Amino acid sequence: MTEKFTVMESEINWPLTYFGIILVWIGILITAGVVLILSYDILDYGFTDYLYYKTGQFFTLVVAGAVILALSVLMIFYMIRGRKRDYRKVVVDEKGIYMYDSGNTIISAFLYAELCPSNEIYFPDIGGKTSYKPVFAQSLLVFKPNKSGETVMHSISLHHNYYSFKNKYELYRHFLLGIQTFRPDLKIGHRTLEEYALTPEAPEVPKFGKFEWVITVIAFAIILGLIYVFYLFIKLFSK
């Protein structure tokens, strides 16, 4: 069985990845522009005069500017850090699932041999989780011992990553197939089996590629819209 188990590797969705990167940098530039405009309003009016005659507005603008600037710095930090440290490649083979960074170094791994039965009464050994807010995301829930030997639940998630993968669903499914093949003693939740079409009666699972595109565009449009509305509110309040 081990020799027949194929190796599956992640495929990066470059258009979606670049699209997300561009939108985030646009958001950073917009927040930076809002901070500059707020600073210009204060300096144009006169720092001392603004503080004396518009004390309430002054502190509101200072706090708002500080918050926006902090968010911008955090986004920049994530963009720099995420490119180097987020999952660049994911591989599923006969031993388990491995996550690699941009330097091709393993930063996380879940081996079949390490997995153990659930210590939760009403939770299977292997389960799944699907969320729809703020975007559609799937993950697997497994149990394995920590450094002290205590059994702990872990989440295997390929979402919310710097790089967007085309075949997240297939990677999850292949990992579950590996568990069925090499760890038949572990029980996979029936709902998870159906969700990943691993039972004879399981319905065909729809692909979510286009759905993810639409949700991502809507999410970023909402974020940019909120930033613009916040800017208009500050402009109105500062008059």
What does this structure look like?
This protein is of the alpha+beta class. 50% of the residues lie in helices and 16% in strands. The chain has six helices and seven strands, in the order E-H-H-H-E-E-E-E-E-E-H-H-H. The chain has helices spanning 14-45, 47-53, 55-85, 168-182, 190-195, 209-237, and strands at residues 8-9, 89-92, 96-100, 106-111, 127-131, 137-145, 151-157. A four-stranded antiparallel β-sheet has the order 1-2-3-4. A three-stranded antiparallel β-sheet has the order 5-6-7, with no helix packed on it. Strand 5 (127-131) and strand 6 form a beta hairpin. The radius of gyration is 24 Å and the shape is elongated.
Arrangement of strands in the largest sheet: 1-2-3-4
> N- to C-terminal separation?
73 Å
Oligomer: single chain
- Contiguous low-pLDDT stretches (5 residues minimum) are none
**Discrete helix count:** 6
Largest sheet: 4 strands, antiparallel
Characteristic terms for this protein:
6 helices; 50% helix; elongated; 239 residues; alpha+beta; 4-stranded antiparallel β-sheet; 3-stranded antiparallel β-sheet; single chain
